[in-house]
Amino acid sequence: MIENKIVSALICECNPFHEGHKKIINYIKNSLKSDYIVAIMSGDFVQRGEPSVVDKYERANILIENGVDLVIEIPVEMVLSSAKYFATASMAIIKKLKFVDNVVFGSNINDINKLKEISNKNIDEKTYHQKLKLGMPHSKILSEICNIKLSPNDILGVEYIKAKKDLNLDVNMICIKRDENMKSATEIREHMNLKITLNSFSDYLNQILFFNKKNNIPLNSYYSVDENLMHSIEKDSTKNLSFDSRIDLLNKKNRTVASVKRALLHILLNIKENDVKKIEYGKKIKYLNILNIKPSSKNILKYIKCKYIFGFTKKELKKIFSDKKVDKSTLTNIYATDLYESIYKK
Fold it and tell me: Residue 254 pairs with which residues in a beta bridge?
């Protein structure tokens, strides 16, 4: 709480903003009677392993216009990760704030007790990894184990609940029914004239792969690039390919398309396995990056006791580099923003 006022959070990508997001915001306002709403949002890249279709600052502005008070960015390393680590980073940000009372998310099942029950299930690791190697997605594996159909949103809900327990976080977890009659973000994207796609980054990726090959730098030092994937990438690393063509060559039975996209983006953004270990897979974030705040809600800032910045402006960069030691995660996120913006603004 802030001054005995209720604070609720939603975790989102808004890629792009749609009626489902509006429904959650209205629920937080009207049903939970929340005084403040905090959005924890992915930035320049999204979990499906693609650049966001709309600039993160534009998306943050839309959230503010629709009733959100504060928008904070999830670090790019954890956005381009599994549902588990995406959820861990999101909930770690909420823990850092220390004043959030409720976390609200959309669910197809819409049964918080069922999701909690699933989160407590002991999953046989050997069986899980065998199914994963066969190319079965995480949501389908968990659905089989729990004998219930789970959507990607339900999977994220389960991971939020797990992260809450793991981080010893004192918040209420609340799910609301996803309205399947509303257009999803995927459906909206299909009819958009996209300003930026993965192919926008093809030349950058080709140059990096060529450089690594020429200098004998092993690709399995990058986050989520295992030895098998490394060899598959290296076969065509000197070819001048589009991002999509490279994905098609790497899309084998035992890999999901999203995992291939994320792995290539880890190479593009120089995200190494050791870098992600240093931030404890999302648990240890140095700076909170504030993308926007409602002018009338600026009093919230005095209750944020951890380090935070307002985007990567000259003023904020000066603050970051005045630190005795700049952490790699911050540098990675600065680079990701700079690269994305350089293409998006063309």
Answer: none
Backbone angles phi, psi at 199, to 5 degrees: -65, -20
Q: How far is CA 257 from CA 162, 202, 251, 266, 342, in A?
A: 25, 17, 6, 14, 26
Give the phi and the psi of residue 31 in degrees, each rounded to 5. Answer: -90, -40
Mean pLDDT for the stretch of residues 25-51: 97
Task: Find residue 70's DSSP bridge partners.
Answer: 38, 293
- Per-residue DSSP letter, 183: P
Do 131 and 61 meet the contact criterion of CB atoms below 8 Å apart? no
Dihedral sign, Cα of residue 210, residue 277, residue 258, residue 138: positive
pLDDT per residue as tens digits for the range 239-268: 999 999 999 999 876 778 998 999 999 999
Beta bridge partners of 288: 308
**Measured CA angle at 180 (ends 177, 182), to 5 deg:** 105
- Contacts of residue 315, defined as CB under 8 A and 6 or more positions apart, other chains included, come to none
Count the alpha carbons within 13 Å of 22 in the hemisphere toward its beta carbon. 11
User: Residue 329, CB half-sphere, CA atoms under 13 Å: how many?
Assistant: 25
The structure's pTM equals 0.93
**pLDDT at residue 310 tops 80:** yes
Cα–Cα distance for residue pair 268/76, rounded to 1 Å: 12
Domains of the chain: 7-190+280-344 (3.40.50.620), 198-276 (no CATH)
d(CA 219, CA 212): 8
The DSSP H or E segment spanning 38 is strand 36-41
Q: Chain-centre distance of CA 248, in angstroms?
A: 24
